[in-house]
Every structure is written in C-alpha cells, then in structure tokens.
Model the fold of this input.
Amino acid sequence: MGHTQKLKVVFEHVASISEEDIHILNKRNLFLHGDIENIEGDAMIDIMQKQITLIHKLVLSYIGFDGHIINQYQLRNYCDETSFMKLN
Done:
C-alpha cells in the first residue's frame, strides 16, 4: 500500500475524505521534499490553502470539535456558502 493510501485509511477513521482531499494528499510530497519548481503561479497557494483546510478538518475532527471551520481555498476564491465546512 502506498503512502497516500495508508494516510487515507488512517484519516478516514477521523473524518470523511473526499477525492479532492486524496488529490491534496498526493501533492504533499512535492512540499515535503522541496520539489516545487514545477508548480507555477497561483497553483502553489491553492494547494497550500487546501492542505491547511484538510489539516484543520482532521485535527479538529480528531479532538471532537462540533461546528464550522473555514475552507481557506473556497473563502479566498469564491467567498460563498462553501467557504465554511461543518464538522461532526
């Protein structure tokens, strides 16, 4: 089982994981290993904002938070009702 699949299995015990979350998990190595030369323009910021939202979702779900969190990517790009995610 690859690293992304292992993380998915673990994270699914904490919170629901979407296909977009899986895509973001696949991008984590680019940042961890400093291989960001091929990421251009706003793509790096978009990935970072999605990773921040995923981290917040997982950590707050794990500690039992019951409420809304900010979806950083949605807030900065669309500022609509999807800018907030309901946890638990």
In short: The mean pLDDT is 91. The radius of gyration is 14 Å. The chain has four helices and two strands. The chain has one domain: 3-87.
